[in-house]
Design goal:
456 residues, alpha+beta, Outer membrane efflux proteins (OEP), 2 domains, two-stranded parallel ribbon, 12 helices, 6 strands, 66% helix
Amino acid sequence: MSWQIGRAGQWLVAAAVWSLMSVIQAARSSDLVAVYELAQRNDPTFQSARHALEAARQKQPEALSGLLPVLSVNASDSRTGARARYSITPEINRTYNSDQWSLQLTQPLFRADRILAYDASRALVEQAIAQYRAAQQDLMLRTSRAYFDEIVAERHVAAAHAQVDALNEQLNAARHSFDAGVASITDVDDTRSRSALAQAQLVSARNDLESAIAGIESIIGEPPDTLLPLRDEVTLPTPQPADAASWVQRASEENPAVRAARAVVKGADYELDRSHSQRLPAVDLVASYGGNYSGGNVTDPVNFGTNVRDKQITVQLSMPLLDGGGMQAAVAEARAQRSKAQSDLTAAQRQAALDARQSFSAALSGASQVLALQAAVSAGQNAVKGNRIGYTMGIRINSDVLNAEQQLFSSMQDLDKARYDTMFAGLKLKAAAGILTEEDLSAVNALLRQQIPGSP
């Protein structure tokens, strides 16, 4: 019996080892900011968004070029050969050379459609910038979620290991008590059954960890180092301001998806005006200068060369009068596209508001859940210790110890998940409001365990 009393604190030692494991691993770990920097360089989805922004930025100078002067040059050189017969001469071969060139400058004076196209291009750039900002925030969220998921999975594996060790020790204690005649074979079988179940849970936890590692590797492009977890004593931040309406209002205005949709509406307005402007006249200034040289022709019996230089300045006006209904159809299409863009904007605003409201609630309820689970873990540790001592004294049965251990392990795993889910909810809330930045990831980094001093 004294052997069992000496083992009463075994589970608490296993739990302590589990808690200290993350500190030991910190000597070779990566933090959230380091993982995010890798994601910025290697995530293909984010790289695609970056290149899309680079392409969209060219829309504005491309549209501006339609309002600027265009200079073009044309040139040709030819040699003509023919057989000609004149009234007083026999048939003869005739050849001569000719060349011509021209330089033409065209400056639009009034092109309403091109002016509106330039305005629409600026709206397209605004949309692309907002979409790139959304991609940035999405990368931060995906990286954070994958980072937190791997840490939780690692700690669940550690918890499963500790549970297996504790149940194996309890199985040894049950067998010792059975051999001493103070416990029944039922206690041994019950403990063996729970130990086998814990082994299965350990296998499942390892599979979850492999999936989490694969998830973060798909973002950063390489297997991650061991990740730094949150410090156990950290108090999780709560949303500021602590007013859901303020977050909802900001999300409805500043969310990147909302800003992108608003830019689409602006571009649709310009496109509608441009379709109307097709009925207006187009006025261009055309200036040309050129030369024309000819060494002769086939109609005259004698070659006479000509060399001409000409200059010309013209104001050209063109205006559609009848187009078979194409312009009317273009106006109707643009009007429908504008209505669609407005509906998309409304949908984006409502989705942003919903995301903000849900994330705000998740952050607040998560903080309360963490406090409750911390109390449950503390009470559970005392319950396990008390039940183990009671078991050795004969006032508790084996199932009491097993139930207390199982409840404690469950509470500890729930606590881990709740802490990281609450932290993620805070990041998601800022993303919904359009204010999530790299500084927020740095703030999370400050809550992580630091490397052991003197470690490599």
